[in-house]
Amino acid sequence: MLAEHLPCAGSGPRAPVRVPLWIVINAGSGEHDAQRTQEVLAGVFHAAGHATDFAQVAEPADLAQACERSAAQARSHGGILVVAGGDGSVNTAAAAALRNACPLGVIPQGTFNYLAREHGIPLDATAAARALLRARPQQVQVGLVNDRLFLVNASLGLYPQALQDREAFKARLGRHRWVAVVAGLATVLRWHRRLALEMQLDGARTRLTTTTLFVGNNRLQVEQAGLGDEVAERTGRGRLAGVITRPLGAWAMLWLSLRGALGRLGEADQIHDFSFHELQVAVLGARRVKVATDGEVLAMAPPLRFAAAAERLLLMVPAAGDRVPRE
After folding, report:
1. What is the DSSP code string of 151-216?
2. What pLDDT, in 10s, does the model give residues 257-313?
3. Is 170 a residue whose pLDDT tops 70?
4. pTM for the structure as a whole
């Protein structure tokens, strides 16, 4: 819990010590007002006796530096790094928390919030803050693609392009979930590229052509897509989930996307899903390739190594009575 007890000098009673919180708010996440979020969090944490330090970040390029600075302070003072944002912001904060060996608390503020939903963290800022007061650190699996971590998913092919198109749509229409859905459908209808891959899995090499390679580290997302029960069960428990699509036309890809939205992706003949600990991927004929990690897109040089990391993130997970249903 955030209210810890440390022994006092002498033989007197143990005095409560309130863990200090370093809180980074991504002002660009979701539809939330950053100043209002800060006021809500300050009210909850100060009423409980916690010292807080807030950093509001307006520019995405400044987020990593703010998280690194706050994580270093949290480590020095025995505190906790807290991030208010979506899955991309949580990814950035998690990297800083791992480097500085400090726990991470999450106030969900994004569009999908898969990490928060997987671990029962309330999506309302006030409820999430109150749950954090009674939360305890729990080890959570981290995925890696080369040296880049991901908590929810990583992919190449169609999905990174869909994310870039989604940001363009949101810049025009606002940060709403329906905008993300429309943008994704538009990408699927005009996507014609194929990836030639050489994959090494469990000692076997395979060459194939695909529209996209998707790697999942979030059991809730894997379950909701309707992948195989065995794949879903192993995700996050030392294994990652892999999905490869056969080369398909636009309308077939659209139908496949709709099956995923309906939770029936695993029944489709056009995909192959599998569970793994480590996967090596060479992208034939490409010097650099777009890779998406937790909603952020970057260019990486193949070969790519996807793996479940040995090091685990200390995530502040709500007590049983504070958790909300996974949905």
Report:
1. SSEEEEEHHHHHHHHHHHHHHHH-S-HHHHHHHHHHHHHH----EEEEEEETTEEEEEEESEEEEE
2. 554 554 555 555 667 889 999 999 999 989 999 999 998 899 999 999 999 999 999
3. no
4. 0.84
Q: Tokens standing for 189?
A: 């209808």
Extents of the domains making up the chain: 3-8+15-141+312-322, 148-308
208-211 long-range Cβ contacts below 8 angstroms, 24+ apart:
208/244, 209/247, 210/157, 210/244, 210/245, 210/246, 210/247, 211/157, 211/158, 211/245, 211/246, 211/247, 211/248, 211/253
Stated as kind and residue range, the H or E segment containing 314 is: strand 313-317
pLDDT in tens, 78-134: 999 999 999 999 999 999 999 999 999 999 998 889 999 999 999 999 999 999 999
Q: What is the CA radius of gyration of the chain?
A: 21
Joined tokens for residue 43: 């009210």
* C-beta of residue 86 within 8 angstroms of C-beta of residue 43: no
Q: Residue 30, by phi and psi: left (phi above 0), alpha (psi -120 to 50) or beta?
A: left
148-308 maps to which CATH number?
2.60.200.40
Cβ atoms of 96 and 70 within 8 Å: the answer is yes
Domains 3-8+15-141+312-322 and 148-308 share a fold: no
| 3-state per-residue secondary structure call for 265-282 | HHHCCCEEEEEECEEEEE
d(CA 274, CA 230): 9
List, in sequence order, every residue forming a beta bridge with 85; answer none if it has no partner. Answer: 108
CATH class label, 3-8+15-141+312-322: alpha beta
The Cα angle at residue 210 between residues 143 and 221, in degrees rounded to 5: 40
